[in-house]
């Protein structure tokens, strides 16, 4: 009998670097003040940063984007497509998860080069397409792969 | 005065067999990793199994599909039809039940040959049509009747 | 930079075997009807079984014992000691976690021979000392180590 | 008519430095893996870091210690004293705040040299006296004042 299986998860050092690089990108690109949440493969928070000037709900939204992506196994773009097709299913999962399913861009799965799931990043504060762009910049800064849920080619 | 009435409910042995058979079907059919929840007639969990590789919200969704079917008295197909006709009613019941109404395929009532309600099965992890197919395979493996809420002929 | 770290988690096959062995022990020992929840290292449910005759809250209690042990990093015996010393701290964490901290025997961490954390088992239905005894029987049936939070020798 | 008043709050740069310095102290002192949450004066999260190996509830507890200190206006030592005198009041506020009142050491208010409130730090993972010690090290690393709620001399 196979008793166990292995999971690979983001280290603190990696998560912290992703968070700082996400905000560095946002500053360089002249974005509005952002918040960024980095979750490990268990869905627990590893690193979080919020810039000065963010509004009050940024933690809930950033963490909810990341946790919803991990909860469903898809990046925000795919969640948004599915929400368009099945709005009442999304409503149900939002209620089941205390709101932790935010079906827009800016929730991004983190994978290694082999496609193994390592964690997720959520960003909030700008247009959701810019939130996603900042998250991708953070993830690629450490050489990992950002899975935004884009349509398969 | 009639003091009592009878309930008929799935036994543990039956529920466990349904859960194992649901996953056996999924493996044979090459489905994505699934979770399966089997509830007794009271709505309490009798058996649950989650394959390796499921995302974080699979318990909530599988159990929510089964409980929602029992809660409303219809399988997922009928819940989905009614959700299309009465979306605000479905929203209200989702809020009342903490999200435990998931109006898509994959929540299936379990009945005996006489149509008596015995419990419900919920499956999550694949396309909802495949979730339902796996639940039906589990229920029929013990000789019981799967009520998916299909349109009456 | 160390990007990732590894987690080891219970397989479905292992979790299912633990659940069945827990109940087999309970039947042999003449215990009251039990429920058993087996969680992986992420805190998500892998396997659950409830015997015929359990009362309505057994899932919540069994899963809450296991999740509370994983949440705090201690087996139920140590949680019970700490609850005696710091009852208001326990109250706070119960509220923070939706009640998923049950500081009595019957929440048991699962470790391998090297002490690595793999998941947790929660049992409910009997006196808590018997709940724990059944969980330990389940865990040792697969050759893994049960950490009940007993005082260090 | 006085239309406005001023708030002074921790900047992101300051909050991030406090979080990193808290964990640096913990590593040097050989503590168990910690999580640290830094809140601004509004009670919103500015910076959070969790070391590898923390158990699942560390965010909730660390953030709950910091938010509870801000919510009541006292550091954890004073919250603990008051909890001893008024346990039912503490229970009520825990229920009102979803558990975000954790009346033990490790929730520390951040003040400037004039005593002005700027935010709060919460630490979880070790004995609460060590949690507090790490939070104080983080706060003093930026030249600010740690208010642990110690008895007035």
TrEMBL record, chains A, B, C, D:
Q: Which domain of life is it from?
A: Bacteria
SUPFAM superfamilies of this UniProt entry? Answer: GlcG-like
Q: Which Pfam families match?
A: HbpS-like
> What is this protein called in UniProt?
Uncharacterized protein GlcG (DUF336 family)
């Amino acid at each position: 009998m196979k008793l166990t299986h292995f999971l690979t998860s983001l280290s603190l050092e990696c998560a912290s670097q992703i968070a700082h690089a996400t905000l560095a990108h946002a500053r360089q690109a002249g974005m509005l003040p952002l918040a960024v949440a980095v979750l490990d493969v268990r869905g627990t928070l590893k690193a979080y940063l919020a810039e000065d000037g963010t509004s009050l709900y940024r933690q809930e939204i950033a963490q909810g984007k990341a946790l919803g992506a991990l909860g469903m196994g898809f990046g925000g773009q795919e969640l948004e497509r599915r929400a368009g097709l099945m709005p009442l299913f999304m409503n149900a999962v939002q209620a089941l998860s205390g709101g932790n399913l935010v079906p827009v861009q800016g929730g991004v799965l983190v994978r290694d080069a082999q496609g193994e799931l390592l964690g997720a990043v959520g960003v909030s504060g700008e247009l959701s397409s810019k939130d996603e762009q900042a998250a991708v910049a953070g993830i690629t800064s450490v050489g990992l792969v950002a899975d935004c849920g884009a349509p398969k080619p």
